[in-house]
Amino acid sequence: MKKSFYLGALTALLVFLGCQKQESAESRPTPAEAQKVAAIGEAAAGKLKQTLVAELTAAMQSGGTGAAIEVCSKKALQLTESIVDSSENVLEVKRTTFKYRNPQNAPDDWDAQALRVYETAAQKGETLPPSYIQKIKREGETTFRYYQPLLAAGLCLNCHGDKNLLSEEVSAQLATLYPDDKATGYKEGDFRGLIRVSVALEE
Question: How wide is the angle at C-alpha 49 spanned by C-alphas 47 and 51, nearest 5°?
């Protein structure tokens, strides 16, 4: 990754981190920490995106939207967890949003704080920050969370788009698998949620 990208992303990160009233000065990552976490998080998030897109594309080509929904239902969480093995610094990988389909993707308090930063920017029509980092001090341990935005791509709209435009088969399948589904109504390019990579840095 080019140094210029990290410097640009780091500047955006520090601006947004400086605006968070819930964090003390001691809980903000230093520039050196933010750069290290960004490198680890970028790699893990990129690998997850590539893996999910490949799986969903293959499913669509072999069995249509119904097969892709099955992948999301049965394999998405497993694929997300598998990314943890890609780096000794990665503790957990999660997709999270306020409009979740699987309850396991529901945000915790820290996730909600990050989501609000992005939703506020999206509502104002501002450019979304390329990433966002939190430094968490808890029970004597320090960990970091790297977040990267997820946008609704054309492929996603087959089961995340306007409810009125979904096929009867897809609607029935979603109702069976996710009776409390919140994840429809998107248009291409909409902010959907975040990939979160939990990171531990070596002392």
Answer: 70
